[in-house]
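Quick one, tokens below:
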């Protein structure tokens, strides 16, 4: 039996492929090794939904996770997984490779993540051959929920949003300037806080201000990331993540104007990633 995981900082989607290729699913907390202790990881693997999966019967574990790019963090995650699934061959990879395999399969293309944060890579059908660093929500993450939220909150606090937008915001949220700044500068996970405003932005797409903000965010993503890949206009751009999925109409418009072929847009990679491993085994 094989266990597949796609893990972000917030949640981890799990799929168990049994000997008959039946698929069983579960979800746990996010297991980013930078933010989650070894004890918390072990507890997530041995309690809750995952306790239904018998560890001794797992032969392979394929874990794709945010924070699993540095060798030290990969080793740490492999060691913890090995404690629980001691009979299994364990493979720990970055979530960007998981996105590429889910989106492109065995074909070449540009794979990108547009969720709370953003990332992208050029994929040759087997390996990531180039990755433009996204630099995180403070210095980059163009096209992401955190990026859009940051732009909006900056405009809001700088009195640069239209009156109708400000009215809708005040009706929806009980947040003043001090509370917003506290969440951004003093509370944990400010990128999640900023990205949380994207649901509100989606409902305000009828306003020209919001449409321009979203379009400009995707244009910045193409400028700072996609356009850095040689031959990017000859390869399809595939996207996974809630922001790319929910704002797909805006993304398609921007890509078309820039002469970029937009391929698959998935909300989450786990289903396609599971299919990749079923096909890879056959």
């Amino acid at each position: 039996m094989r266990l597949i995981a796609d893990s972000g900082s917030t949640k981890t989607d799990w799929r168990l492929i049994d000997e008959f290729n039946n698929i069983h699913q579960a979800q746990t907390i996010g297991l980013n090794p930078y933010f989650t202790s070894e004890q918390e990881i072990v507890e997530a693997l041995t309690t809750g939904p995952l306790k239904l999966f018998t560890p001794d019967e797992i032969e392979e574990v394929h874990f794709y996770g945010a924070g699993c790019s540095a060798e030290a963090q990969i080793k740490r995650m492999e060691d913890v997984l090995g404690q629980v699934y001691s009979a299994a061959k364990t493979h720990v990879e970055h979530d960007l490779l998981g996105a590429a395999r889910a989106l492109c399969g065995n074909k070449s293309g540009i794979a990108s993540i547009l969720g709370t944060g953003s990332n992208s890579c050029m994929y040759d059908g087997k390996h990531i051959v180039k990755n433009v660093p996204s630099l995180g929500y403070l210095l980059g993450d163009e096209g992401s929920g955190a990026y859009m939220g940051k732009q909006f909150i900056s405009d809001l606090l700088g009195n640069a949003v239209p009156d109708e937008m400000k009215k809708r915001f005040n009706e929806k949220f009980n947040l003043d300037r001090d509370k917003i700044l506290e969440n951004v500068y003093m509370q944990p996970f400010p990128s999640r806080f900023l990205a949380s405003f994207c649901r509100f932005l989606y409902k305000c797409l009828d306003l020209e201000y919001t449409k321009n903000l979203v379009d400009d965010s995707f244009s910045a993503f193409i400028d700072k990331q996609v356009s850095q890949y040689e031959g990017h206009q000859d390869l399809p751009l595939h996207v996974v993540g809630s922001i790319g999925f929910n704002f797909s109409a805006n993304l398609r418009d921007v890509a078309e104007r820039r002469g970029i072929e937009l391929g698959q847009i998935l909300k989450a990679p786990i289903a396609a990633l599971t299919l990749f491993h079923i096909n890879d085994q056959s």
